[in-house]
């Protein structure tokens, strides 16, 4: 899920050219990006890994957006969080995702894209 090659696959429903720069260690800054038609970074999210308990829990604190290469931090302390919990279930791993403080204008988009992304992640993990 977190390796570069598989991350690019399962996050395609969010952005066909989705990738990240940074690492997943707790406290690290990480950028979730996409590319434009010329292969140049087009925008994305600047974030921080708030918590990482390998194979149990990851919390991503979204600090702001990136537009045309410019970091635009969110106002105040209203950061969005993307939390992943991993539990063993029926011989496999169940992934639960919780999004908090997500701006309302992103809700419909996320509700449409998450199921598609999770279907791809399931397919990858069952290979």
Strand/helix succession: HEEEEEEEH
| Corresponding CATH architecture | 2-Layer Sandwich
Number of domain units: 1
Mean pLDDT: 90
Features of the shown structure:
127 residues; alpha+beta; Alpha-D-Glucose-1,6-Bisphosphate, Chain A, domain 4; seven-stranded antiparallel sheet; 2 helices; 7 strands
Describe the model:
The protein has 127 residues and is of the alpha+beta class. The protein has a single domain, classed as Alpha-D-Glucose-1,6-Bisphosphate, Chain A, domain 4. The chain has helices spanning 4-10, 104-125, and strands at residues 19-22, 29-35, 41-53, 57-67, 70-73, 80-89, 92-100. Strands 1, 2, 3, 4, 5, 6 and 7 form a 7-stranded antiparallel beta sheet that branches. The longest helix is centred in the last third of the chain and has 22 residues, at 104-125. The model has no long low-confidence stretch (mean pLDDT 90).
What's the SSE blueprint?
Layout: H1 4-10, E1 19-22, E2 29-35, E3 41-53, E4 57-67, E5 70-73, E6 80-89, E7 92-100, H2 104-125
Quick recap of the structure?
With 127 residues, this protein is of the alpha+beta class. It has helices at residues 4-10, 104-125, and strands at 19-22, 29-35, 41-53, 57-67, 70-73, 80-89, 92-100.
